[in-house]
Amino acid sequence: MLMEQRGLPEKIAEIAQSLLEHRSLGMAFETITRTACSFFNASASAIMLFDKEKEYLTIAHSINLSSDYLKVVKVKKGEEVSGRVCIEKKPRFVPDVIKIFEEKNDFFSIEWIKKEGLKSLVTAPLLLKDEPIGCLNLYYREKIEKFEDFSALDFFCKLAALAIEHTKLINEIEDKSRIVTELEHIGITLSSTFEMENIFKVLLASAIKITHTDSASLLVIDEPSTTVLESYDFSKETGEIKRYRTTARLTNGISGEILKKRKPFVINDLTRYENVNPIALQKGRMAVAAMPLIARENLIGILYVDSKTPRDFSPSEIEYLQLLCTQAAIALDNTRLYK
């Protein structure tokens, strides 16, 4: 099944170099799946990775599988073939994929497998420091009776896991460097203007860019009286800032938490937050990070960044938002003193 043994070390070295040279995660995924198909004569291949909680595996990238199939595949840790492979940390060969699901009366999966024309499957764990980050699946549309290349597959999967982690680290370093540079420029911009709306626009636009969110808003508040003085909204679709009439509740909910604790407050899924403002859900907001703006120990505003889908906010994103809010709070306070 494996390509001819002659020249195999050279081919493996070539694959290793190819897998580790990418700076884009998408390109790394593409190289892994394409090379896997070619190297192991598979009809299709897919990389499945765990979510942040390491509870479910989903397909991060594939080749020669339909986009509809990718949407329905979700495997719980320890279940199905892929989930068990990750727990056992050993590869597995399945000569007849349909038979496995027939034994479980899983007709939904059988229907999709037949649509894709899949006959046999080989799946192997992707391990980093002996911990699974996901698995690599090789699919065959012609039934195969045996698979003997487990040693080569094990080596390939180790390279693939390293390539994924290597690329993620590069992206993380480059992203941090880019954001730090942007924050320096933002600080210069904020300190060089005494126009309130310019400060608001720079703050909101920058917050969206840093967190890759859909919209951002700002409440300018008077803390002693617990009142909203002004409220502004910014959408990356229009690039415009506008005033709006807020329904934010400063005595409870997310805003109340900010006033009470003066610390960032993050909701990854608003539908699960019992004190959610119904208007937020009506506007399609599904995740939010709220940040206090504090100047000379006074809480002068609250920044919100919103996502249309549930999502996590990384510690680095929260850290960058805090730095941004500190810069903006100083600029707003200076502008008030100037005027």
UniProtKB/TrEMBL annotation:
Domain GAF, first and last residues per copy: 24-174, 195-339
InterPro entries named among the record's database cross-references: GAF (IPR003018), GAF-like_dom_sf (IPR029016)
The organism's place on the tree of life at top rank: Bacteria
One Pfam short name: GAF
Xref: SMART domains: GAF
Protein name as catalogued: GAF domain-containing protein
Organism: candidate division WOR-3 bacterium
